[in-house]
Hints:
By secondary structure, the protein is mainly α.
Amino acid sequence: MAALGGEQTATVLAVEEPVTPADAAAPVAAGRRSPLALVFYWAHAAGLFSIALSNVLLGVSTLAVPWARPLEGLRRRAVRPLLLALAAYVALLGLSALHSFDPRRSARALSEVFALCTLLLGLALVKREHVVRRLRDAVLLLVTAESLVGLVQLVVAGGPDLARRPHGTLSHYMTFSGMLLIGDLLLLAELASRGRRMGWRALALLPINAALLGTLTRSAWVGLAAGFVALVLLSRRRVLLWWVPVMLLLLLVMPPAVLERAVSIVDPADPTNSDRLCMAQAGFEMIRERPLLGQGPDMVKARYPLYRLPAATRYTVPHLHDAFLEVAAERGLPALAALLLLLGLPLARALAGYQREGARHGPRAELWLGVVVALVGFSVAGLFENNWGDIEVQRLVLLLAALPYGLGVPEEPALRSG
């Protein structure tokens, strides 16, 4: 590494946090990690087209970790606040289950702890830029393949149709649209940062956006708009603004089902909009009754009729169609605060890394920026849909939350002595 120029060394040092003894051991721990654990971790993300397969691969990756002793990397000072938020989230999940109106039913939600291993393993295993890129590409490969399957389903259905919405290989179209949203924003961030140097990945934007429109999922559309606004504000404003008239022009030639669905987003008379307002009021009542530990995990569906407003369209609902309201109603306001930290801390770190590297001019700009806009889009979409409750989407978000911490680790210890 001595042959590296001073300019490259300075670039790497500029994006690192102050070094502690635990930090100094991180590259050593990285060298001890098992390649097998990392391979299976990559595969569990790429294999999310089947949750059973992804579970098996995540389990194998988890079992492979102790043999490689990479957990020393979790002692880094930078990851401690996120680990504390994760510990608080898990503890509050358990306490809420114990305090539930039906502890036996709520106990089933404890399986989420296994899904959270995606974040924990990501913090332990992902320690270098090339690993971050491979994981990002695994997500894009998965999303692109799903979009192609969804397009075939759209053709078979004869076009966008609320009764026959594409879902790819997944069980539900909402999960499908949540995946597409994340992949779309990762690609748009790369387009803003690298332009023509994207290569084949630029072509993936076409099927992903076509399939996303075909889902007729308004929450994902709103999340995409929010992520795009964040992208415009943070990157090449002049280059990206030409997308606005292009999108408006495309809307004019869209099928009527897409146009009607888009207009209904801001229509207060739309029955689904009014019904979701009723759900929100019922959720607030649930929180008011039990603000600390909530009704209990997986209890919103069972107890919703007790809080249902007379004006509500549906007597029962599977969830409150708001990820943050759902967590607060199920598990209490402290659990909501822990979730906001799980999303906010990685977002803030990615934003700081993007700004430290000179915005779009940095060599890793699209990685930092991709995490920022994907988390923004997911969070805004979560205001209108329980996307955190979709295990496949949740895992992609947890993987993204780990990436900024992987980018914060130098490639070689020698760079610290610069």
